Amino acid sequence: MRPESFAFLQDLLHRETGIVMDDGKEYLVLTRLRTVVRSEGLSGVDELVELLRSRPRHPLRRRILETLITTETSFFRDVRPFTSLKEVLIPLLVERRAPSRTLRFWSAACSTGQEPYSLAMLIREHFPELEEWRIKILASDVSSEVLERARTGIYSQMEVNRGVPTPLLMKYFRREGLNWVVNGEIRRMVDFVEINLAGELPKLPEMDIIFLRNVLIYFREDVRRKVLERVAGLLRSDGYLFVGGAETLITHQDLFERVQISNTSCFRPRR
Ligand SMILES: C[S@@+](CC[C@H](N)C(=O)[O-])C[C@H]1O[C@@H](n2cnc3c(N)ncnc32)[C@H](O)[C@@H]1O
User: Fold this and answer.
1) Number of H helices, E strands in the chain
2) Does any ligand 1 atom lie closer than 6 A to the CB of residue 111?
3) For domain 80-269, which CATH number applies: 3.30.1050.10, 3.40.50.150, 3.40.630.30, 3.10.50.40?
4) What ranges do the domains of the chain cover?
5) Is 119 touching ligand 1 by the criterion CB < 6 Å?
6) Counting atoms of ligand 1 from 1, which one is nearest the CA of 66?
7) Which end of the chain has a smaller Cβ tally under 10 Å, C or N?
8) Is the CB of 147 under 6 A from ligand 1?
9) pTM more than 0.85
């Protein structure tokens, strides 16, 4: 791949999603775009880039972007945020929100849906009293491809093996051939919507809990700041934000205060 082709893809990805693909990631591009190159009968990534240069609105542009994005996820990923919700935060919010009987969660980079479905299962499993409440789980991502998969609620054996405890698998999934399908009750708790965190956000209600995990790491500091400012504005003053285990908000302490709950860190907005 020519350096200009790599630079073109870096720029395209950054403009459209805010994601930074560092120099030295050429191997990643070559591996990820191999299938697109083959299926289009092209000679290589350079020809693919030429096609996009000459026809910027080419339908392949979307597919290329989707292919370059990292969408790695799993059920109950890093488990500790879920433990702190179960042990401390949801019980606390249940008390505080008793008058409105409404709780709103946002999984803001939900990938193929494991994160919001984990939240839905946790709520159903441990808080049966909330069945009478309005529980809204908004799940969004920039990639329409992952959202399409998430909406189907269909997962392979390998995917459920990564994080779904057997009792929950038996209770909230049904077998379909080689796959497992999330049951209707859990699926109905989650609304999937396409939202680009680096673009203008649509009008959203204030949230009690926001999961913004393993996505900030892909943004440059200025984009990260913009995203966090908006997220802070969307979190209720007594709501909580979770970021990924490898992510810190050390340079955003003016926006969020770090709190330690059940062995994990989460963040409260400063107002
Ligand atoms: C590594 S996955 C993390 C998924 C999940 N939050 C987790 O922690 O398991 C990162 C996700 O962020 C999404 N993403 C990347 N840039 C985004 C943007 N600008 N707006 C919304 N989602 C974005 C990707 O499409 C991908 O699904």
Assistant:
1) 12, 10
2) yes
3) 3.40.50.150
4) 3-68, 80-269
5) no
6) 25
7) C
8) no
9) yes
